[in-house]
Specification:
By secondary structure, the chain is of the alpha/beta class. The protein is built from eleven helices and eight strands. The chain is globular. The structure holds ligand PTJ.
Length: 262
């Protein structure tokens, strides 16, 4: 990995880039994944590169949903395998959710490389590799339609960090609850999912694992009331308000005469 000095003001962000470049060189990440990360970085910049209150509330709801689920599945793509493999494996262990490889740019080599990356962090069963991805999500044309009959096909709750809108819509049409992590509150996935964690996956995943550990001592009724009190539309609205307010404050600090308006 290219050596980034820990004192660099953008250390965290630069290390993430290095992890993705390494993931690209080792066959986990596609070039398109690097572009997708760049879009995420731009939104992270607007959000302030810190986990905000609206994301914490979505993390609480996601934790409750995963613990209440009967057949939860975590869908893993190349970027997620490069950035947070240890945390998806920990989340799977804490919630009992199955891990399934699901790729937009699917190839057998990438499926196996991603499964191996998860196994290095202690994953045992990784679904969605080779013939295991033998079932199909109806009405979906992309490679993401291929799923495991033991995993996503029969799941009641599917966690799909960094997803594309088509599959989110298709999974919802199948009656599944969809949880996502997406820095872009305007993306189709963000707007379609049941629970949208608007945060960087590198910050959100460790927080989600901690939340699940804390929530495990709660009864099912308490978890249900967390979920029932959650409003995803409101969370997206708050994320957009937060970005607007931040931009107005910054604009004001530069002396914009119009910044106080709106
Ligand atoms: O590994 P594959 O073949 O499944 O392909 C994975 C990518 C990510 C390339 C594929 O799913 C894709 O093209 O995704 P999109 O449609 O570009 O959507 C990715 C979304 O994730 C965008 O809305 C980005 O803003 C967001 N995003 C990117 N990096 C992060 C992120 N959200 C949270 N944390 C990030 N680090």
């Amino acid at each position: 990995m290219f050596m980034i000095p820990p004192t660099h003001p953008r250390y965290r962000s630069l290390v993430e880039r290095e992890r993705l470049v390494e993931g690209f060189e080792s066959g986990l990440v596609v070039p398109q994944g690097l572009i997708a990360h760049g879009r995420g970085e731009a939104f992270d910049y607007l959000i302030g590169e810190e986990t905000q209150e609206f994301a914490v509330r979505a993390i609480e709801a996601a934790s409750a949903a995963l613990l209440l689920a009967e057949r939860p599945v975590i869908s893993v793509n190349g970027n997620v395998a490069a950035l947070v493999p240890e945390h998806v494996v920990a989340l799977s262990r804490e919630t009992g959710a199955k891990l399934e490889v699901n790729l937009f740019y699917r190839s057998r080599e990438r499926e196996e490389a991603i499964a191996a990356a998860l196994r290095r962090w202690g994953a045992e069963d990784v679904l969605g590799v080779g013939e295991d991805a033998s079932a199909q999500i109806p009405e979906l044309q992309s490679e993401r339609r291929r799923v495991s009959p033991r995993g996503i096909l029969v799941a009641d709750v599917v966690f799909v960090p960094l997803e594309d809108g088509d599959r989110t819509e298709a999974l919802r049409r199948m009656g599944k609850m969809v949880i996502t992590v997406d820095l872009n509150p305007l993306s189709r996935t963000a707007r379609t999912a049941d629970i949208t964690i608007i945060d960087n996956v590198t910050r959100a995943l460790p927080l989600l694992v901690d939340m699940v550990r804390r929530h495990k001592s709660l009864g099912r009724d308490s978890l249900r009331s967390i979920l029932q009190g959650y409003d995803n539309g409101r969370v997206i609205g708050e994320a957009l308000d937060h970005i607007c307010k931040r931009l107005r404050d910054i604009s004001l600090s530069f002396g914009s005469p119009n910044a106080h308006r709106g």
